[in-house]
Amino acid sequence: MVDTALQRTAQALLAENKGLLAIDESIPTCNRRFATLGIPQTEPARRAYRELIITTSRLGESISGAILCDETIRQHTADGMPFLRVLREAGIEAGIKVDLGTTPLAGHPGEKVTEGLDGLRARLAEYSGLGASFAKWRAVFTIGAHTPSRACMVANAHALARYAALCQEAGLVSVVEPEVLMDGAHSLARCAHVTEDVLRVVFRELVEQGVVLEGVLLKPNMVLPGLDCLVQDPVEVVAEATRTCLRRTVPAAVAGIAFLSGGQSGDLATARLAAINTGTPLPWPVGFSFGRAIQQPALTIWDGNDADMVRAQQALQQRVAANRNARRGTGTE
Ligand code: 13P
């Protein structure tokens, strides 16, 4: 049966053309991004950066929910206000990344499986008690000559489905993120084929585990040529391939689609989102749950230096507003 509260929360996350802001980089990933800019890789620096982001004025006009990591959900502003209260006062729902990252998949060189199911019921209860209303789990698939293997798809899809079922038990919306990575020289056609296969397996497993699709947001990759592919297809081609792939694989009952950006530039991710939202309406609201494509300019401008904070926040505002606008399709700018 459909849990209407869960369904309402899921729908609200993609209402009014708003989207999700992914600031849930794990500590090692955040540190890696800081290191490339020479920013200290410390808890105070990560806290200051996340404070800069969530205190950006008018963030709630374009962002409905922020995905946090375990470190961030417990942090406070320099003035001592809990981050969760800052978000609540801005009208932004708090989400939490609950997977514990990837590990090599036994017997399948080069492939990864996402871990974090052990103890997940208790962790979800804690996050729900803290005030989170949704959660995220990411699986990754690498396109190679013989990958992703069926084993990798099934193992990751099964974990995604068990995570989503536990979320629903805890009253949390589940963001289901199966990411086909952009790394490689593969063509757009190959990405389309792999993404279709992955999504079919994911939805089969979600249904097997009794997950109510109305309480799920899918966070997929766009259908793209590999970063090293010599043919970089135009925005319209990417949009049509992505629309076709989703139409073929995602049940209409799913509450919404919120794309990851996966290393695309901010402008390109936005242009592609607008193109995907152009043409015959799709069965779901189609929005964004971008990390890098929203944050990168702000991080580069801030560069660990609080004197540049206002400029960094302005850059962030521009990125989120552009993405909200992109949900209306092209021809509206
Ligand atoms: P990107 O948009 O940078 O891919 O980040 C989204 C995310 O949440 C990855 O898990």
What would you report as the Rg, rounded to the nearest angstrom? 19 Å
Contiguous runs where pLDDT drops below 50 for at least 5 residues: none
Which architecture name does CATH use?
Alpha-Beta Barrel
Bound molecules: 1,3-dihydroxyacetonephosphate
State the end-to-end CA separation: 41 Å
Order of helices and strands: HEHHEHHEEEHEHEHEHEHEHH
And the CATH topology?
TIM Barrel
Pairing-aware structural class of the strands and helices? Answer: alpha/beta
- Give the overall shape, derived from the CA principal axes: globular
Mean pLDDT: 97
Side by side, the strands of the main sheet go 1-2-3-6-7-8-9-10
What is the C-level CATH assignment? Alpha Beta
The number of helical runs is 12
β-sheet strand percentage: 5-15%
Assembly of the depicted chains: single chain
The number of E-state strands comes to 10
Biggest sheet, open or closed, and with what strands and sense?
Answer: 8 strands, parallel, barrel
Instruction: Say which CATH homologous superfamily is assigned.
Output: Aldolase class I
Description:
The structure is a single chain. The chain has 333 residues and is of the alpha/beta class. It has one domain (4-328): Alpha-Beta Barrel (TIM Barrel). Helices cover 45% and strands 15% of the residues. The chain has helices spanning 4-13, 27-37, 43-54, 70-73, 83-89, 120-130, 150-169, 188-208, 235-249, 266-276, 292-302, 309-326; strands at residues 19-22, 63-68, 93-97, 102-104, 112-114, 134-141, 173-180, 216-218, 256-259, 286-290. An 8-stranded parallel beta barrel has the order 1-2-3-6-7-8-9-10, surrounded by 7 helices. Strand 8 (216-218), helix 9 and strand 9 form a beta-alpha-beta unit. Helix 9 (235-249) crosses helix 10 (266-276), helix 10 runs antiparallel to helix 11 and helix 10 runs parallel beside helix 12. The longest helix has 21 residues, at 188-208. One of its GO terms (molecular function) is fructose-bisphosphate aldolase activity. Pathway: Carbohydrate degradation; glycolysis; D-glyceraldehyde 3-phosphate and glycerone phosphate from D-glucose: step 4/4. It comes from Arthrobacter alpinus. Its EC number is 4.1.2.13.
